[in-house]
Amino acid sequence: MQPAVFPVVALESHALVDSGAGEKLERYGDRLLRRPDPQAVWSRRLDERAWARADLVFVRESDRGGRWEGPGARGGAPEWTIPVLGAVARIRPTPFKHLGLFPEQAPNWRLVEDLRPRFEGRPRLLNLFGYSGVASVLAARAGYEATHVDASRAALAWTRENQALSGLPDNALRVVLEDALQFARREARRGARYEVVLLDPPHYGRGPKGEVWRFEERIAELVEAVRELLADRSLVVLSTYAIGCSPLTFRNLLAELGPGRVEAGELALSEEDGGRLLPCGFCARHLRGLEP
What we know:
There is one protein chain. The chain is of the alpha/beta class. It has two domains: 14-91, Golgi alpha-mannosidase II (Immunoglobulin-like, Sandwich), CATH 2.60.40.1180; 103-288, Vaccinia Virus protein VP39 (Rossmann fold). The chain has helices at residues 48-51, 106-115, 134-142, 153-165, 180-189, 215-227, 247-255; strands at residues 14-20, 23-28, 31-36, 56-62, 65-69, 80-84, 87-91, 124-128, 145-150, 173-177, 194-199, 204-206, 212-214, 230-240, 261-270, 277-288. The strands form four sheets. The chain has a seven-stranded mixed β-sheet with strand order 10-9-8-11-14-16-15, with helices on both faces. A five-stranded mixed β-sheet has the order 1-2-3-4-5, with no helix packed on it. Helix 4 links the parallel strand 9 (145-150) and strand 10. Helix 5 (180-189) packs parallel to helix 6 (215-227). The longest helix is centred in the middle third of the chain and has 13 residues, at 153-165.
């Protein structure tokens, strides 16, 4: 038996070149990046010469982060842009090894786009923990009325950058600085309804007013709040990385949303030779009124 993995959607501007020995080697546009990945415990396919060609190498300094080294880091922190399914995203290497783009999410982005014709009028999409806004920008381009929520001012500024780079007008997104759970509860009290809700929460975080988010303690409350926001026909996507829960946990959580079909499994990236899959987190989807 093979584990359940959502189909990989390739991006024209990204490739997983190789993985192994606790690292991954990826191409983002014309840059080659080398980063730690605790899932890649197997052996590398390529030799050290191929890995040594990396333009940027992440060096961990502590549990709280690290720094980027290599030819591409000379002269300061590098930034560049790449195309993503018709949008444009700014790649910005951070001290937390993130870049502002998670290519393994492409199957969810594509699903949201594919479902757009099955909703009447202009459907509403809520992106909680929206980070740099790639999912929100893609949804707006596909014709959704997108609301983007994050607790970080820097993340919201990044979202606005990606929005402008992708040619969207200023009013194309509703961008909100707020704690995700508080926002969802307030929208429920207002009687708001959404056709699509995207959830990609961290393991730990803080809201703009100091609200504490711990996944295991708050995720059930968030799912309960989201249940009150769903339209008669709806999609909910829950995905996470580096959290000690299984796809079965996610299936049980989303089953509490009520009638509908729940799919659960892993997100992954495929090495560019089409071989091994690198696990990139767990995911579950709840579809109501959209079943085949």
